[in-house]
Design a protein that fits this description.
The protein is α+β, with helices and mostly antiparallel strands. It has helices at 3-17, 22-37, 81-87, 106-115, 155-199, 206-223, 232-244, 254-257, 265-287, 296-315, 321-332, 348-354, 363-380, 392-397, 419-434, 446-458, 464-473; strands spanning 39-48, 51-59, 64-66, 74-75, 92-94, 122-128, 134-144, 150-151, 334-336, 342-344.
Length: 492
């Protein structure tokens, strides 16, 4: 082996070990091997079950490159020289395929006839892992001498290429392992995200919709920039952050997550039972002569109106000043129970819950709900993310931070909030507004949601430029129809 060839072998090893994309790796392998062997053409096959799949082919004379699409597989039969090399784990060198009776070279002959080419010398090198696993075959065609003429492959080139084939096999196996591990991790993430979403009826497709919308938005941003905002690595990292942003909700009590009204179901049942008791007590008093029956129907009507108003307030998105005043009046009304004690129509606890201005959660319940981002950070910090996904815990746990510093849990503001977090925040707010599966509110229209996002910009909460870009992208279209919500998949 020449010193120059030894140097190339070392360089090839370094180059192959740094490539993580399988398709680019295969191209790199064939290119390096052809350069080292100084040949005119070459093909790389990978083993797939009991056949060899044509993956990459190059012919310098014909200026032809192919990724093997549409090419028939090569059966693992001894008549095929590529298959035989792999089956017997040996390199096969042929000086002239037209004068070789040992193998079936009808394929090269047909290729030559179609393309006006002449296949002569051939070197076939099997690729196996260190553990002996069959991976594929390198087929090199028409070695070239110093004058550019076709010649046989040099005997010492066999050992050189076997060494490179071994390195190539190891690189292919490593990339496959990485892909498998990554696929396993991504599957785990989707399972965890689905488990969190399915735990609560209103969260059923929240993360999935956000991820799909996020994919589209990143594509939209990339298409409108001279230098793409999102490389493949950054894109995968942000998508992982979106999938995992609500993982901390696994610790949030369901009675808080699924609270459809200000009153809990038990509180609402007790209040309704009390109003029924008040009505029946008055009716009995009238029947037994302890109260004037003349106003009985009007009293019954006031009970029905109270029940209706309480239902309206309990499920309202906002409680008005007039409703608060009505609740205060109801709290002041009293009745005498069966034990002769004076009681209020509305307890202090019920008044406090029904007086919540916005949403259905009390201050204590809101703190429990907000704690999910703290738990997201705590849970994700226990996962040893790769360098490519190192920002996932930080981005996922910060999606409730606001630019004006009024978010949570850390009260970050301005430039402290990464670009990616600002995107997750917009996606999260938009989905919460337009989703039709929230028990505590009606779905907003897209137009209403856009107005609310712009109010968020005006209040200094959301990134102005990103918000307008999100609105312009309309990346949510088709994701919120009842028949479409579960029809898409997101690849992380």
């Amino acid at each position: 082996m020449r010193l120059e060839d030894m140097k190339k072998v070392l360089e090839i090893g370094v180059k192959l070990s740094s490539e993580r994309d399988l398709e680019r790796l295969l191209e790199e392998i064939l290119s390096c091997v052809m350069e080292l062997a100084r040949c005119d053409a070459g093909t790389l096959y990978l083993l797939d079950g009991d056949v060899l799949r044509f993956r990459i082919s190059r012919n310098n004379t014909l200026k032809n490159y192919s990724n093997g699409e549409g090419m028939p597989p090569v059966p693992l039969e001894r008549a095929n020289v590529c298959a035989l090399a792999l089956l017997e784990d040996r390199t096969i060198c042929v000086e002239d395929v037209y004068h070789s009776p040992d193998y079936d070279f009808s394929g090269p002959r047909r290729y030559d006839a179609r393309n006006g080419y002449r296949t002569r010398s051939m070197l076939v090198v099997p690729m196996r892992s260190r553990g002996g696993e069959k991976l594929g075959v390198l087929q090199l065609i028409n070695a070239m001498d110093g004058d550019g003429q076709v010649c046989p492959f040099a005997p010492d080139m066999e050992l050189v290429l076997e060494s490179v084939a071994s390195q190539a096999a190891l690189a292919i196996q490593n990339v496959r392992y990485i892909r498998e591990i990554k696929g396993l991790f991504n599957s785990f993430v989707r399972v965890m995200s689905t488990a969190i979403d399915e735990r609560s009826s209103y969260n059923a497709d929240h993360s999935r919709r956000m991820a799909r919308c996020g994919e589209r938005f990143m594509d939209w941003l990339n298409a409108r920039s001279k230098e793409p905002h999102f490389s493949l690595r950054r894109r995968e990292e942000l998508l992982m952050g979106i999938w995992l942003h609500d993982i901390g909700k696994v610790t949030t009590p369901l009675e808080v997550m699924d609270k459809a009204g200000r009153l809990s179901p038990l509180q609402a049942a007790r209040l309704k039972s009390r109003l029924t008791e008040i009505w029946l007590t008055r009716r009995i008093d009238c029947l037994e002569g302890r109260a004037d029956s003349g106003g009985l129907e009007a009293f019954h009507q006031s009970i029905r109106e109270a029940e209706e108003q309480i239902d309206n307030i309990n499920g309202a998105e906002f409680v008005t000043d007039d409703q608060l005043a009505w609740l205060d009046g109801l709290r002041r009304r009293t009745y005498t129970d069966q034990d002769g004690r004076e009681q209020s129509w509305l307890t202090d606890e019920e008044y406090e819950m029904l007086s919540i201005r916005k949403g259905t959660l009390s201050r204590q319940e809101l703190e429990k709900m907000r704690r999910h981002v703290v738990m997201t950070d705590k849970m994700l910090s226990q996962i040893r993310f790769s360098q490519e996904l190192a920002h996932v815990p930080e981005w996922a746990a910060a999606h409730h931070e606001k630019l004006n510093g009024k978010g949570y849990p850390r009260g970050m503001k301005g430039d402290e909030i990464p670009f990616e977090v600002r995107i997750i925040t917009i996606l999260d707010i938009f989905d919460a507004l337009v989703a039709s599966d929230r028990p505590y509110k009606k779905a907003k229209t897209v137009e209403q949601a856009i107005r609310i996002l712009r109010f968020g910009v005006k209040d200094g909460e959301l990134d102005p430029e990103l918000t307008e870009q999100f609105i312009e992208s309309r990346c949510w279209e088709g994701l919120y129809g009842h028949s479409e919500e579960k029809e898409f998949e997101v690849n992380v």
